[in-house]
Amino acid sequence: MCLTTxxxxxxTQLHHSTKRKHMKSxxxxxxxxxxxxxxxxxxxxxxxxxxxSSGVTTINWWTRVGxxxxxxxxxxxxxxxxxxxxxxxxxxxQYVNKVGTGVxxxxxxxxxxxxxxxxPLFAATGVLADxxxxxxxxxxxxxxxxxxxxxxxxxxxxxxxxxxxxxSILLYNxxxxxxxxxxxxxxPATWAGIEEDAKKxxxxxxxxxxxDIPGACGGCLSFAAQPLIWASGGTTMTAASPDQTTTYSTSxxxxxxxxxxxxxxxxxxxxxxxxxxxxxxxxxxxxxxxxGILLAGSWLVSPAEKGxxxxxxxxxxxxxxxxxxxxxxxxxxxxxxxxxxxxxxWEFASWLLDKDQQASIADTGSSPVRSDLLTADFAAKxxxxxxxxxxxxxxxxxxxxxxxxxxxxATSPWLAAFQSIVYNGADVNATLxxxxxxxxxxxxxxxxxxxx
Amino acid sequence: MTAPTVTRAGAKAIAAPAPARRRRxxxxxxRSVAGLIAVSPALALILMFFVAPMVLMFWMSLNNxxxxxxxxxxxxxxxxxxxxxDGTFWNSVxxxxxxxxxxxxxxxxxGYALALIVRRRFRGVAFFRAAYFAPVVVGFASGAYIFLLLxxxxxxxxxxxxxxxxxxxxxxxxLTDSNFALFTVVLMITWKTLGTxxxxxxxxxxxxxxxxxxxxxMDGASWFKREWFITLPLMRSSxxxxxxxxxxxxxxxFDQFFVMTHGGPNQSTVTIVMWIYTNAFVRYRLxxxxxxxxxxxxxxxxxxxxxxxxxxxxxxxx
Lengths: 452, 318
What we know:
The structure holds two protein chains of two kinds. Chain A has 21 helices and 14 strands. In chain A, the strands form four sheets. Chain A has a five-stranded mixed sheet, with helices on both faces. A four-stranded mixed sheet of chain A has the order 8-9-7-10. Chain A has a three-stranded mixed sheet with strand order 11-12-14. Helix content of chain A is 46%, strand content 14%. Chain A has helices spanning 4-24, 29-45, 70-79, 95-104, 119-124, 132-136, 146-152, 174-179, 191-202, 218-224, 226-231, 252-267, 284-287, 301-306, 342-351, 355-363, 376-381, 383-392, 403-408, 413-424, 428-449; strands spanning 57-64, 83-90, 111-115, 153-154, 157-158, 161-165, 168-173, 209-212, 291-297, 311-314, 316-317, 324-327, 330-335, 395-396. By secondary structure, chain A is α/β, with parallel strands linked by helices. Chain A starts with a helix and ends with a helix. By secondary structure, chain B is mainly alpha-helical. Chain B has helices at 2-15, 19-61, 78-84, 87-118, 125-133, 140-150, 157-164, 178-206, 210-218, 223-234, 236-251, 255-260, 272-281, 286-317, and strands spanning 63-64, 73-74. Chain B has a two-stranded antiparallel ribbon with strand order 1-2. In chain B, a hairpin with an 8-residue loop joins β1 (63-64) and β2. The two termini of chain B are 41 Å apart.
């Protein structure tokens, strides 16, 4: 029997002692981190065997911190006798590292719920098991979020399935719109409309801005910039494979979208604080009722409403409003290749996709991943979730095992190009050509390391 | 591997002809065994938490060692060869040196000046000492976040004060201009760490015997001469300590830039450790980042030894 407190308290203590050492000599940081992770894996090793003498199979579920996943585990444990689930929350910035160490020592989790952006990485490096047959056996497989499903597929095999979706939408502050004399029945539905409304809102006052862009946060730009490209029919990279290339300079919709943002910035309608927004305070000014239009996730609706603003929402459009798209953000879930109880692990993972569990996600404000939930009754009860399910039908996402290095990190070529173009007015084509050139070695390195 | 064997054989050859010495020798050995037992817990910790990881890291640096996946391939010095031609790495070395050369004199001279104020007891001195030292107990990351709030365009306190006083008319480019971004971080770090330098220098000053200062006063030395020729030379070890702590601290700078600038704008503020971090946890190349860490270690050892030498030599001359 494995004590929960053991596996949770030990890493915490390690973390503190690591921190103290780190004050003295920070070149030990990497080593200490590695050791900490190794010891964590060691501490967990007693728990990973799974079966206890009573015939109950225990599976370990690793999930991201900050989301209330314990309720799912409790419900599953209350309704199942042969399989029990133990939840371990792993912080986002440690996630890949912890998984890497866990898998390497053969003591990782059985079920992994992770940032969908890491799906290609976990698939290509052999962390996840091939669940193609199991997924194909689900009668609702075709109803699953298409963008997230795409990321779960690598080399024509399915390694992970969508679990909770967090697509991006267009949010607008109706209170500010009314003050500026703009109709609020429908959201701005074209790029020209966004620009026009943003200018009117900007005219309201010194610290009121028409638009906000999280300009120093690659992960946020997946929500706030790329959907413009996808809605226009463009893409930022070819399909995930060792021959993958980025298409910044060859997909003209990338340049169009960045020029649109460049223009908004030069118009002076964009909140200047966004230029250094690295994610931690994304949406703070929006929540304070100082921003007219924002492309972001649904989680920024209720804080703004609590702040006293009336909020409207709609899909993220292409330039002429004839199409829309969204970022396939959220969490995918998969069974690890090292799991000793893959069948029990899949039993739990697929249970999470049942209608009951998926419907309960709507109550938390996040979006389920099954489009067959979208009935008239459901849409009436959860209008915001319904919009998320609708836009998810056209969801997309950067699909590469090097996404982190290519687009998400502070030192990524995509973020550098975005900033040069939008904020410094750099030449669009030259900058995007350079970004493609800078990205090629990162893709090559990533696949070479994985032995592909 | 042969050198230690030769030495041991040599030692035996000397000890052999004198039997009387043997007893002393065994006594010494017993003593040294007892000593070894006494320090063994510490030694074990050092072996486990410093030497072993260091050896492991060196081994990693010779391999293609991904964070995920099982592929580990011995590639010899390829990671080091790559580091030599890695432009971002050398830019980060130059930037880190620049940062070190800016922050170290500030810490020393400003720290010295403020230590002068608080070294004597006077009414309210405790308040000043506490005020100078208070930011030290704030973590680097927390301090950086506090500063981020203070420099927010529109709502940040710094801009409001500067504009309210009529010094500036628009928000300053705190983090959007590369030189200004460095200035902002230097400002934050000065606020955050100056307290340590002040305390160390103050203790150094107080350790200078009062009679020596009095003697120089009797000889008619001016205040400046007393500081320059009497106090400063006698507190050389404190100065050396402050310099060394600042050098290593700045060489290993990470948190403040990671939180405040993220290496931006346009990757102009990427420090060495940030680049190591990027390779390890963004690009998942543990082998390469281990090689960079070893190179950083070598750089750090070179600079620290040079610094110790410089300060020690002068103290021996005097």
